[in-house]
Design a protein that fits this description.
- By secondary structure, chain A is mostly beta strands.
- Chain A contains no helices and eleven strands.
- In chain A, strands 2, 4, 5, 6, 9, 10 and 11 form a seven-stranded mixed sheet that branches. In chain A, strands 1-3-8-7 form a four-stranded antiparallel sheet, with no helix packed on it.
- In chain A, a hairpin with a 3-residue loop joins strand 4 and strand 5.
- Chain A starts with a strand and ends with a strand.
- By secondary structure, chain B is mainly beta.
- Chain B contains no helices and eleven strands.
- In chain B, the strands form two sheets. In chain B, strands 2, 4, 5, 9, 10 and 11 form a six-stranded mixed sheet that branches. Chain B has a five-stranded antiparallel sheet with strand order 1-3-8-7-6, with no helix packed on it.
- The chains are: A mainly beta, B mainly beta.
- At the A-B interface, strand 4 and strand 5 of A face strand 5 and strand 9 of B.
């Protein structure tokens, strides 16, 4: 089944404790992206990747890192999480940046 | 910069039509999308329209685009309780890789 998977689905952590949210797609898509969803703000793009080893900042990249060492994986790294990063995070992928984006099920992160 | 706005909430009765509205500011938008988000799930693409079109119909869904007013709407005919969800409109320019999303409209369908 073609899909985008994210892990974990739910995470509660404390300020400053490094964490990684994984994202994987099995559709051989070149383009992958991370969004955060906050009430009243819709989805805002954090980082995106056009292909392996090619990443770029979105609208709200502060406090996040990403890497794209393999085509299928695009992990989101929070080196020192803070409470303002409490949010619902979505990974998405598409064949290229101009095609339909397929979304993962989301990761709800709470930073205490 | 780009800005996409939607009303936050819409409530309808089962069997009625629902109309969800969206306005955008970027006149160079070339693709406009409607996504549906069910509780606990990711976003699912419902339909999209190119900026050179005025209307697109797909079964119970009708998308209307008014380029002059930069207004996009999604009409759901014969709305069902299973249509209850959050609906996001999004826009993208040719050559740009990111989607700009609206705030989302929560549709509640009551029996």
């Amino acid at each position: 089944e073609a899909q985008v998977t994210q892990n974990p689905r739910y995470l509660i952590t404390v300020t400053g404790k490094k964490l990684t949210v994984t994202c994987s797609q099995n559709m051989n898509h070149e383009y992958m992206s991370w969004y955060r969803q906050d009430p009243g703000l819709g989805l805002r793009q954090i980082y995106y990747s056009m292909n392996v080893e090619v990443t770029d900042k979105g609208d709200v990249p502060e406090g996040y890192k990403v890497s794209r060492k393999e085509k299928r994986n695009f992990p989101l790294i929070l080196e020192s999480p803070s409470p303002n990063q409490t949010s619902l995070y979505f990974c998405a992928s598409s064949l290229t940046g101009t095609n339909e984006q397929f979304f993962g099920p989301g990761t709800r992160l709470t930073v205490l | 910069g780009e800005d996409v706005e939607q009303s936050l909430f819409l409530s309808v009765r089962e069997g009625d039509s629902s109309v969800i509205n969206c306005t955008y500011t970027d006149s160079s938008s070339t693709y406009l999308y409607w996504y549906k988000q069910e509780p606990g799930a990711g976003l699912q693409l419902l339909t999209y329209i190119f900026s050179n079109m005025d209307m697109k119909q797909d079964q119970r869904l009708t998308v209307l685009l008014n380029k002059k007013d930069k207004h996009l709407s999604l009409r759901i005919a014969d709305t069902q309780t299973g249509d209850s969800a959050i609906y996001f409109c999004a826009e993208r320019n040719t050559g740009f890789q990111k989607l700009v999303f609206g705030t989302g409209t929560r549709l509640l369908v009551s029996p």
